[in-house]
Write a structure and sequence with these properties.
- The chain is α+β, with helices and mostly antiparallel strands.
- The chain folds into 2 domains: about 120 residues, 60s Ribosomal Protein L30, Chain: A; about 35 residues, Wheat Germ Agglutinin (Isolectin 2), domain 1 (2-Layer Sandwich), CATH 3.30.60.
- It is built from 7 helices and 9 strands.
- The strands form 3 sheets. Strands 2-1-3-4-5 form a 5-stranded mixed sheet, covered by helices on one side. Strands 6-7 form a two-stranded antiparallel ribbon. It has a two-stranded antiparallel sheet with strand order 8-9.
- Strand 6 and strand 7 form a beta hairpin.
- Helix 1 packs across helix 3, helix 2 runs parallel beside helix 6 and helix 5 packs antiparallel against helix 6.
- The chain is globular.
- It starts with 13 loop residues before the first helix and ends with a helix.
- About 30% of the residues are buried.
- The chain binds zinc ion (2 copies).
- The site of one zinc ion has 8 residues, from helix 7.
């Protein structure tokens, strides 16, 4: 597998993630690390965002970082969401089929970076915090996030190398009309009920009744 020569590609700074995501947090820092590992492991040249596919197994703050840094987005159909509630991300190089699955280590915990974070959060969430506590929480979150960015990759994720069958490229489907609500729906998302074309919401309503 070819690895990126770091002088070829400058990974976007974390500040761009924060601009997009709206706040600094450990979750977006974790996503930033995942994206950085994916680019380092899978790419050897400058432009890659059309070639990369990400399958995320959660919809946490981390996924915003992945979108900014890797260019994998829902709109480009190269970000695929599996609602498994796992801190795991698979990245695939569409050209080569090389892939890595990153799964968070059981041993990883923000407590290892700063044990006060959990306590401060609890205090602020319970409503008993002073203004000082709140400021301290904000500062601790920033420090922990920065700490995550500076951690060695192997302290956050287990990395599994794979070769995968490539998902088909985005195709453009024609639209058809739902016989119940009259709205247009992509052909590959239509449902059939007694030979009538239905959109998914209308189909689901019929099934519930
Ligand atoms: Zn966040
Ligand atoms: Zn309908």
């Amino acid at each position: 597998m070819q690895k990126l020569n770091n002088s070829n590609y400058k990974i976007k700074p974390f500040s761009q993630v924060t601009d997009f995501h709206g706040h600094i947090c450990p979750g977006s820092a974790i996503g930033y690390k995942a994206a950085e590992i994916a680019i380092k492991e899978l790419f050897s040249k400058k432009s890659f965002d059309e070639e990369l596919i990400c399958i995320t197994e959660n919809d946490s703050c981390a996924v915003d970082a992945i979108q900014v840094v890797t260019g994998c987005t829902f709109g480009k159909s190269n970000l695929i969401f599996h609602d498994y509630g796992k801190q795991a991300y698979t990245f695939i190089n569409r050209e080569t089929g090389d892939a890595v699955r990153l799964s968070m280590k059981e041993s990883f915990s923000t407590d290892n970076i700063n044990p006060n974070l959990g306590k401060l959060r609890q205090k602020v969430n319970s409503g008993t915090a002073t203004n000082e506590n709140e400021a301290e929480l904000r500062e601790t979150i920033n420090k922990v996030s920065e700490g995550i960015i500076n951690l060695p990759d192997n302290e956050i994720f287990d990395v599994q190398y794979m070769k995968v069958e490539l998902p088909a490229k985005t195709r453009i489907f024609k639209s058809v009309k739902c016989s119940k609500c009259g709205e247009m729906v992509s052909d590959h998302r239509k449902r059939l009920h007694k030979e009538n074309i239905l959109c998914m919401p209308c189909f689901n309503k019929i099934k519930e009744n």
